[in-house]
Please model this.
Amino acid sequence: MTSGQARFLNIHEYQSKGLLKEAGCKVEQGFPCNTIEEVEAALTKVKTEKKVIKSQILAGGRGMGTFKDGFKGGVHVCNNAADALAAAKHMLGNTLVTKQTGPAGQHVSKLYVTEAVTGIKRELYVAIVLDRKTCCPTFIGSAEGGMGIEELAHNHPDKIKKMLVNIHEGIDHDRCVAFAKDLGFSGETAEKAAEQFKSMYNLAKSKDCTMVEINPLVELENGEVMCIDAKLSFDDNAAFRRPEIFAMADASQMDKKEVMAAKYDLNYVALDGNVGCLVNGAGLAMATMDIISLYGQKPANFLDVGGSAKTEQIIAAFDIVTQDPNVKCILVNIFGGIMKCDVIANGVVAAAKHLQSSKPIPIVVRLEGTNEELGKKIIRESGLKLHNAANLDEAGHIACDIVSGKIH
Model:
C-alpha cells in the first residue's frame, strides 16, 4: 500500500506554528521561504546566532531523513547564517526521503527558517487526539519527547500519561496543572505548561482539529514552556466552515490522483496492485479488493464513487485510475440502489470511448440493482469490447484472468 485514506487535512509546520501562536501558545520566531533569496532575507531577521533550517514536507522523520543526492538530514541546526544558507541550498528543490515518505520521498519546495532555541532543560511529547472509545478529546503526553511516540507507547506504556476532556464541561485549569505535574513539571512551570495545554485545546476546538501534536514541547532552564515542533490535522467534514484553514492545503505534497478525486468528490486511495477498481460503497469496494486478491492479483486502488455520482464523475474516476501505469484491467462493480446502473453504464461507455484513443485498457463490468437491465443494455449496445459479468465472483475471475494473460 503506497498511501493511506486521507480523511483529514494536514498542514505544514510553519502553518501549524502560526495557528498555535494565534491561540496563545509560545513558539519560536520563524519565516517560511520559497526561494534562496527569501532564505537570505529570513536569516537577517532571525535574532539568534545559530539558525535552524527545516524542510517543509507533510511527513515525519525529517531530521533523520536523507535527500536523494545523499545530503543528510531534513532539519539542520547551523552555527551561523553562512552555514544555514549552505544547508538551504542543498535542501530547497531537493527530494527528501524519510521513514514516512516511502522510497519516492517528497519534494522540498519550501523551507522554514527559525531561531535556535537555547537553554532546553528537557523535551516532552504532548498531543490532543480524538479517542473513539471514550468519545472525548484526549491529551496524550510523555516526559520523553523528540522520539517516536508509537515505539515508546509499545515498549514503555507506563510512560504515557493521558487526560480526557469532557466536551460539555470544557478544559479545566486544575486538571491541566495536574497533567503537567504528571509529566514532571512543578511550581510555576506547571502553571505555564497548563496554559499551553489550554491554548492547544481551544485551538483544536475552534478549528475542528482531529489532532494537535507537539513534539517536542520543551521546558527551558528559565522556566518557560515552548512548542518547538508541531503537526496539526483537521476534519475534512469541517471544510465548509473553515475555508481559511483548508486554503492552506498544499496540493504539491499530495498524490495528484487524490487531488483530482477530491475535486470530483470521489473517495480514492492509491495502492500498489494491477487491477483498477471502480465501485459504489466502501464495503463493496473492500469486497471487490478481496476478490481480486483471492484470485491471484492485487487491487491498484480503492475508489468509491458514492451513491449519487454523475456521468462526468464516472469519466473522471476512469481518468484517475488509468493515470496509474501499473493498471492492466479495470473492474467496475456496481450495486444499484441510490446509484442507478444506467448512469454508471453511460459513464463507463463514455470513458471507454475516451480510453480507446488514449490508453486502451480492458474493462470488466458487473451491474446489479436499480435500472440493472437498462444499464446492461447500454453496455451491450455500445459496440465496445466490454467484459460483462453476472456477479462479483465472475467479475473477479475475468479481471484476474485478463491480467494473467488467460483472456485477451
Residues 187-206 form the longest helix (20 residues). Confidence is low (pLDDT under 50) at residues 1-6.
